[in-house]
Design a protein that fits this description.
Helices cover about 50% and strands about 15% of the residues. The protein is an alpha/beta fold.
């Protein structure tokens, strides 16, 4: 798509972040000039992010620290600032400060919005910037690898039709994990559609080097499922219910069944234990087999299948944490704390 056609749709960008340092510099530099204005929303950075964004030409919004920070709140306030600066904006590209936009993405995404009025959100392939640096980065990259087509939800990086986003009230600022699927649920209920293109959309820098970081990321997914089920589980979509049941079945139901079986047939407990482990292995293999059309190596698929089953136990911890903290929700951040501050949590699509 030519620059003229892009500009004819009046598109701007909202970038959110906290203490992203050089990641933010790369993010802002990757935005095509057709994205104008660019609003950067900062959640209490202490690393010069505000000055860095202003120097790059972005309109800066600094969130009031007297209210809890969340990615949902940051994106909402960024959207309002974008509309104030450009009242006729028709589309907005949301970007996290640890991501870099891929060349050519904007034109292809805008073309989808232009040709299909029923589409409210367009997303694409997110790739890890250093996919093979650690096994955890590789798992994150595979998590982002999903089939294109009409989907139920997007992640935190997406192009949205401004009118549709505004009509549903944007994100729920009280949702601290899984805010994207929750908003997409309301969009779909209003008759809109979400489309994932096969095109590369951005590079993401998860910066995961330790098992504990990956565990926290999985824990956050469990928290998000529990929150989703509490908010919309009784609705027609049964939002989050299936995922929540799966967590409890694999982490509580199956082990409990194994213990009961071993208690009833003490002499056969090794057989019972081996049978339970075989069920886990079979499910991991089933997950690996189901991804055979995504262009991944067999070793990576097996790794993801095994990690998914182990991650169920972290998700269980996340669901328990939700019920303990539901009156005063707190962010779950998996990234290391940089010198001088704490990063903002940016919950992804579980």
């Amino acid at each position: 798509m030519s620059a003229e056609r892009v500009e004819s749709m009046r598109v701007g960008a909202v970038v959110i972040g906290r203490n992203e340092g050089e990641r933010l510099a790369r993010c802002l530099a990757s935005l095509p000039p057709e994205l104008s204005p660019v609003v950067y929303v900062d959640s209490g950075s202490t690393d010069g992010s505000v000055e860095r964004a202003a120097a790059a030409g972005a309109k800066v919004v600094v969130l009031d620290s007297s209210k809890p920070f969340s990615a949902a709140r940051a994106r909402n306030e960024g959207f309002e600032a974008l509309r104030a600066a450009s009242p006729n904006v028709e589309a907005v590209q949301f970007v996290d400060g640890d991501c870099e936009m891929s060349p050519g993405w904007l034109g292809r995404a805008l073309e989808t919005l232009r040709t299909d009025p029923g589409v409210a959100i367009v997303c694409g392939r997110v790739r890890e910037r250093a996919r093979n640096a650690t096994v955890y980065n590789r798992l994150c990259d595979m998590e982002f690898n999903r089939l294109p087509g009409e989907v139920r939800a997007c992640g935190g990086i997406f192009l949205s039709r401004a009118s549709a986003f505004a009509a549903v009230g944007g994100f729920d600022p009280g949702v601290v994990a899984g805010e994207e699927p929750e908003m997409c649920l309301r969009l779909r209920s209003a008759g809109h559609r979400i489309v994932r293109l096969p095109d590369d959309m951005c590079l993401h820098d998860s910066a995961m080097t330790r098992f504990g970081q990956w565990w926290k990321r999985c824990q956050r997914s469990g928290y998000a499922y529990a929150l989703a089920a509490a908010m919309h589980g009784s609705g027609p979509d049964r939002h989050g219910v299936r995922e929540l049941r799966s967590i409890w079945m694999w982490t509580v139901g199956l082990p409990l069944a194994g213990l009961v079986g071993a208690a009833l047939a003490v002499a056969w407990w090794p057989v019972v234990a081996a049978s339970v482990l075989a069920v886990y292995a079979a499910q991991a293999a089933r997950i690996a087999w189901g991804r055979r059309g995504l262009g991944e190596r067999i070793g990576d698929r097996v790794l993801l299948g095994a990690a998914t089953m182990v991650g169920k136990f972290a998700q269980l911890a996340g669901t328990i944490r939700y019920w303990r903290e539901r009156e005063r929700p707190r962010l779950i951040e998996y990234k290391d704390v940089p010198a001088g501050g704490v990063r903002e949590a940016r919950p992804s699509v579980p």
